[in-house]
Design a protein that fits this description.
Blueprint lengths: L2 H7 L9 H19 L3 E4 L7 E5 L6 E7 L16 H7 L2 E5 L12 H17 L5 E11 L1 H10 L3 H5 L6 E7 L6 H4 L11 H6 L13 E6 L4 H16 L4 E6 L4 H4 L9 H9 L4 H4 L1
Parallel strand pairs: 3-4, 3-5, 5-6, 6-7, 7-8
Antiparallel strand pairs: 1-2, 2-4
Helix pairs in contact: 4-5
Length: 287
Amino acid sequence: MDQAELDTAYDQSAWAPNREQLIKRYATESEAVRARLGAPRRYAYGATPIEGLDVYATARAHAPINVFIHGGAWRAGLAGNYAFPAELFVRAGAHFVVPDFAAVQDAGGSLMPMAAQVRDAVAWVKRNAHRFGGDPDRIYVSGHSSGAHLAGVILTTDWRRDFDLPADTVKGGLCSSGMYDLKPVRLSARNAYVKFTDEMEQALSSQRHLDTLNAPVILSHGTLESPEFQRQARDFAAALTAAGKPVQLLVGEGYNHFEMIETLGTPDGLLGRAVLEQMSLSQGDAR
């Protein structure tokens, strides 16, 4: 690719003309879900104001937990606008947790603080699941776009070394439409607002840390996404397979980048069905 092609390959607006419509729909659907389920419980997982998480709790006792990491090119998005999948999980008997975290522009252009924050959020859930009726031994993570990148970082965390938690703290993951090797991203126009370093590229490229991955992974992309996002998913899946790690690659025929994650909100959707199966939950309960 030349520079213009690479820049376009990491600019989702070039591939999804309905981007703004869909992002607005995330917010309106999230409001509708809150109207049906009620407001989430809000907990602080860290010391700064942004370090809070929303918990949409199920009535089932000692229930599994799905922690959802939202996207937004590392620079946009709030937990409140990503509640739209919550009803699927709550009705199927699981808690749905959405953390807020710092945007890259508020962290001096570094991705390291937000990576630390989402890891801290999962560690908090592990240690505090009893506060909302969750099972600390059944934590799953899901993420979309830049949130899928961060979900990959969570999945490749050395929990024992860094948090004194079990190596299998996370029992499974969904990474939808993400980036798993940051080298090509660093070469793209995203380098204008992410101040990449060699250390950051290495530390936060989950494809390079498969030795610390201890959970089955679902990867996905839509056929209308940019070629680079499709390649990132295929290459990560191939690397996991070569390393003997359990992985499933799902391809959404006719879906663009922003449409794919909406399928997480319904038990018959491509991602909703897959994650319920991963968490051993019934589709019938979610209807």
